[in-house]
Design brief:
2 copies of one chain form a homodimer.
Chain A (H helix, E strand, L loop, with lengths): L7 H8 L3 H9 L6 H14 L5 H8 L2 E8 L5 H14 L5 E6 L4 H12 L3 E6 L9 H5 L3 E5 L10 E3 L2 H14 L4 E5 L6 H15 L5 E5 L5 H14 L5 E4 L2 H14 L8 E5 L13 E4 L2 H16 L9 E2 L3 E3 L8 H7 L1
Parallel strand pairs in A: 1-2, 1-3, 3-4, 4-5, 5-11, 6-7, 6-8, 8-9, 9-10
Antiparallel strand pairs in A: 10-12
Helix pairs in contact in A: 1-2, 1-3, 5-12, 8-9, 10-11
Chain A binds a DNA duplex through α2 and α4.
Chain lengths: 341, 341
Amino acid sequence: MSEARATIYTVARAAGVSAQTVSRVLNGTGQVSARTRAAVLAAIEAQGYRPNAVGRSLRASRTPMIGMLVADVGNPFYARLHRAIERRLAGSGYSLMLMNCDDDARIEHRQLELLRSYRPTGLVIVPSVGSSLTDARLQEFGHVVSVSRVLGGVHVPAVVTDEADAVAAAASELVAYGHTGIAVILGPREASTTRAREQGFRTAVDSHPQARGLVRYTDGTRQGAQEAAEALLRAHPEVTGVIGFNALVTEGIVSALLTAGRRCPEDVSVIGFTDAGWMTLHRPAISVIDQPVEEMGALAGRLLLDMAAGQSVDPGPHVVPSTLVRRGSVAPPSMTKERRA
Amino acid sequence: MSEARATIYTVARAAGVSAQTVSRVLNGTGQVSARTRAAVLAAIEAQGYRPNAVGRSLRASRTPMIGMLVADVGNPFYARLHRAIERRLAGSGYSLMLMNCDDDARIEHRQLELLRSYRPTGLVIVPSVGSSLTDARLQEFGHVVSVSRVLGGVHVPAVVTDEADAVAAAASELVAYGHTGIAVILGPREASTTRAREQGFRTAVDSHPQARGLVRYTDGTRQGAQEAAEALLRAHPEVTGVIGFNALVTEGIVSALLTAGRRCPEDVSVIGFTDAGWMTLHRPAISVIDQPVEEMGALAGRLLLDMAAGQSVDPGPHVVPSTLVRRGSVAPPSMTKERRA
DNA sequence: CTGAAAGCGCTTACAG
DNA sequence: CTGAAAGCGCTTACAG
């Protein structure tokens, strides 16, 4: 009843046992007789006692918390990833702490420093562009899993999709439809995802002698992508098929088409990367490389939980394949001439 | 150099001072001579010492952490809100811990219990539907601000938009365009936002004798809204203007229109609530009640910071007005007949 | 099955 | 301007 600061000691006193025994009941460790347990539980109930995670963490030298650092929480990809990881962690006793770094290595450093001060159990990281994270540094966070972007020279399990193959399939799809001038609007040049997707694109283009491929780098935002796409379409009217790096970039491409007065798919075919709700609403519906975000998040969560439980895990990279979802935004380039005729 | 557990004590020893003085240097509290400060800083540098937030929190009986509990992190509104609050908190020393509750009072309770165990400094809450949160309970979280949804019988500063007026303006806009059968697809019946928006809708409809208003409740998801909109359009062909509760519901309405073969705006005019990137891409571009999410988040962050600094703040509710953004999804209903003719 | 003691890393009074 | 002591709430060895 006296809510005035219930601790393990006040509970112990009321139950006529030691603090140690209360701790045992709380954590289900060791052996406690049924009678003692009942007395402790009754005292906990009577006092409205609730554990203090801070005391526990200090003693244990670690906090049951998983940090999650991403480049941009405004990108729906990361929101979905966060949700998927949180779902996987639910009930495990670990909480997820989401942090943003605006894809800035300096902010990344600062955020990780803050996280580290809590002595977390693990970290899910989508490294920022230009990240200078090292193995030694990451070790400070206990168990680490990287998602989507991988970090060079660093040995942590990675969860990714089949970047290169997925983009190669999309590029080949455009070629199969008869496009010879195709382009991909990528993200930041230094991002591993950009490099992998570019490589897949080039591989596909190179395997089709009739095709010519163009590559553009952006900051991965809608605005940046729109500008890049507008410039590209202006300078290269022969481009009739464009692949977008992510959902935001795809928005930028579609927006650029609108601005430039180019119709989709009659004038330009479009394939996005990472599905988004609006893509089925758009006319034509946007064909997309559907990234299995939920599976990726669930896998990352599981790996972390396994590591935290002391199990050794496959360092991967764990590749969860994407699927090309065909909707209405890809058509033969010849349609242009037919319609114009 | 000896990275083997640098603490305030190892630093103190190396600098030839007491732990207390190291603490003073770390926190900038009290007076420390320049020489002493330099010696401490040198020792910190040499040992690679970094503070342990857990020890600090335990002693201080509170953690420099702000919890943020929302109904659905998958809703872009909350992602934007999170980002805005994090921005406002950046550099303040407080970290933001985002938690999801799937709009379930039970999960809300569990998540808050977890948060509370960290002894946070504050909480930003979008109460779940059916939340049984009380003043007493919320007091356990130190400083609390509610955003968007308000909680009955609870006295915490609230940050909201002008729900009723905004929806009333949208409904009047439809009537002004000549619509007489108008509808609003709302969220959960129990949510304060639903009630306020419904009230605004009814007020507007009642002030126009020629207008008839229909109201539907949903779970606020795209799927739920799509089903509700399909049923509504089927049962009430006289409805030619629809207002959506949020961006997801608006997706559902647009999707329902597509499924039902009703054109926008020729057959049905649409006004959304809360802007989203796809709305300017859609043809027609979707007119929307643009909710000032960033301002709301910044304000919530500031209120929390002020409260944490011991200042008393205006309990509000703090109303940040929305703006009706006219795009292409509203047209006179007469267009229907003209086109059909 | 249970307990007394120590200590996790830090800051808060209290002295000087 | 600086320090010795105590204690935040808990769990970890160590005993019995």
